[in-house]
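The freezer alarm interrupted the setup, so I double-checked each line after restarting. Inputs confirmed:
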Amino acid sequence: MKTSTLALISLLSFVLGTVVGLIIGPIISPQTPQTRAFPEDSAWRKESIRVVGSTTVLPIGSECAKAFMKKYKTVKITVEGGGSGRGYKELIDGVCQIGMASRPPKEKELELARKKGVFLVLHKIAVDAIAIVVHPSVVERLGGEPLKLTLEDVGKIFAGKYTRWSEVDPRLPDEEIVVFTREHGSGTRDTFEKFCLKPFGLKLKPGASEVPSNPTMRLSVEKTPYSIGYLGMGFLKGGVVAVHLAEKKGELYYEPTRENAIAGIYPIVRYLYLVTNGIPESGSLIDRFIDFVKSPEGQSIVEKCGFIAMYPRQGD
Amino acid sequence: MGIISNPPSLLNIIDFMKKKGAIIEIVLAIVSLSSVLILILIVVFVFNEALPALLFLGPRLILGGKWAPYYEEYGALPLILGSLLVVLGSALIAVPLGVLSAIFLTEYLPRSLGEPLRSIIELLGTIPSIIYGFLGMIFIAPVISNLFEVPLGKTALTGSIVLSIMIVPTIVSISSEVIASVPKEYKMAALALGATKWQCIKSVILPTAMPGIFASILLALGRAIGETIAVLMVCGCVPIIPSPPWNYLSPVHTLTSAIALDMGEVAIGSLHYHVLFGLGVILMLITFTVNTIADILLKKAPRSVIRV
Amino acid sequence: MKKYRFLEKFIFISLSLPVTALILCFLWILVSIGVEGVKSLSWKFLITSVMDGGIFESIVGTLYMLGGAVTIATPIGVATAVYLAEYAKGGKIARIIIQAIHNIAGIPSIIFGLFGYTFFCTFLGFGISLLSGWLTLACMILPIIVSGSYEAISMVPLSFKKAAIALGASKLRVIRDVVIPTAAPGIATSIILGISRVAGETAAILFTSCVYLTNGLPSNPLQPVMTLTYNLFGMLVATPRDSLGDAFAMALVLLMIVIVLNTFAYFMRIYYRRRWNI
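Predicted 3D structure, all chains:
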């Protein structure tokens, strides 16, 4: 066969592939005619929204969106991470309809929102604790005893006041501390700095490696010896070791567990939010989705993701 | 009378066709100028968004040594140095590899073998950068970590290694063409005078092809500076100036990965947003300079068609 | 004499090392992705929706993205090449256009992302959408199509054109019926190369058109889309998982697309050269 014919065939098959995709795509995509069943109530079923923001809230948003879309097949909910900063940004820019945030808005974000006529409304959907995690190599020599640090100790480590683990505690290995932090818009980072750095007038050291999400933080700490990082307790799994925290020296040290968080004795606790521009219109997809997340089914998903439900769960 | 006064004469038809031809030519000219329009739009819009940052920060943007947007410090020096380190490192690896490969492929191998091998190497250059980043992250970073006993395997060295493989094909491809188009008379003359193959290459072919080879290196460097995804995944994303500055085992952050990472979360209109476009402007200036020099050099080299 | 012969052999062997190393690199890349990817690659994986763990919408999304971008870029690119080669050859306008094309080609892809975001998404108001992606990628493909088509059209032998003119054809006729068909393989090659260039593109569409998860495919170009590159990026950097099997499979699909496209382009170039004895 002539090569030019071959080339023409390849080009044609590429075009054909696209056309076939165009045809098969909508068929495989769920498009059941539920709109016909509820004519009065149907406007929201044809809506499509974007839910963007905190990677801490992302598993909750993602799973809830999936469950919601499985129930009401015609709606379209796009869920994306990027950090609380991104969530606020997209909400203010009008590019998303619901923001996910693991922190309240910053001054600058409030200012920008005001300037653009956006009115930020926060909906609490879960409670979270931030765990400080280290690579197992750090606690090897402690012989099963947990690593106990105060908030100030943690702050000093992240600020670079301690550069080697042996400076923190002589029992720890004499190795350089590798510090991981989150990207600047991260709600988790904001909360962390609020508890561990700001009160002591400390700033994160420049040599900290930035990672873009909670799962990346966990994997980075898990894979890098002598490293330390922080993440939402829903991501506390696998090969990282949680630090036991005390608010001040002389107080008791607590693990980041669900019980400790609910009892209020674990030092770093925060709310997780869904954020909207103004109060969502009653009956709209935004309204229904937020209600779904607060519903027993949604709150069960919250717990399943490793966070603490705020409202009654299914079966409570 | 009526028939004679308006016959569809040959002159009329030719006139019509000329007009049609003229219209077509104008239409094509307008369409072609769209490329110029696109370039102007890119420059205008990127500069426009960068302006607030450039005005507000001034030289601090380039000379400031601390990149910490969280604390509102926007000194891009660590980023510029990071980019430079990674690019220079990749050049140190890619230039010898590339130039020597080009020489081998064009002068020492018969065309039937040289051409396919060259195409395979060019294929290396078309592999998406995300795959390079992927492999670098999974396979090369741990090796660096173990070999040099650094806990974090994502370093400037890792970035240089990955980047070098990505830019070698550019060097090989263009250098091969340049070397192959050195006039055969030069070679014949040298060989006739009794030179060995290597002497011929060293004293005749290489000097003639040097502008072109140098241009290929510059083009490769231009591509390296603009590489985003692969360096983002293997360089560590730590915006510091390594101590000492030539410490390749330190993680670094580059201009491109800073833009890519931060762009997702800056609200339009915030200073950080404008600073990122400012970084884009710096990037564009660097690549524009490098590519222009390369273009000038390529015009001097013995080639017959324009190439992108 | 013997010394030279030994030296030459030594040089030959040393010079063969870089090439061997590069070829081995290439094979290593293919093998690493191939072996690991095949483990997790199955027909089911390709067909299942992303919501259920497959990559169907990513693949179709990528096809949509590439299809649209190349459809926009090809007419403009070929028209520009025709104009440069046939109408304005060597003139001042041609030089300006060629310089512009060169400059666009040298712009890093992340800058296209910035430009796409501020111009297509914000200024023109298309938002994060398939359309923004199409336009941004079209700008990137344009230089490749223009330069490749220009080369192809320039290589059409003058005798062909003269013969057509001698038979009384107008300039337009000559272009339409002689030049373009003759240059067609070359033009097609440049189109395929353009597609493969942006098939693996992540930075440009990172914040102009893609999302990680959505329900189904975009029903109109103003909606965002899922693509292989973006989802792979998400899987590796933004939301990494413990097992990389899926990532390898996606990388394999992406790699195959790019290699197939480039191999076709390569064979077309060979055919073209052989036909015109270049």
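Quick read of the result. Chain C touches chain A through 42 residues (CB under 8 Å).
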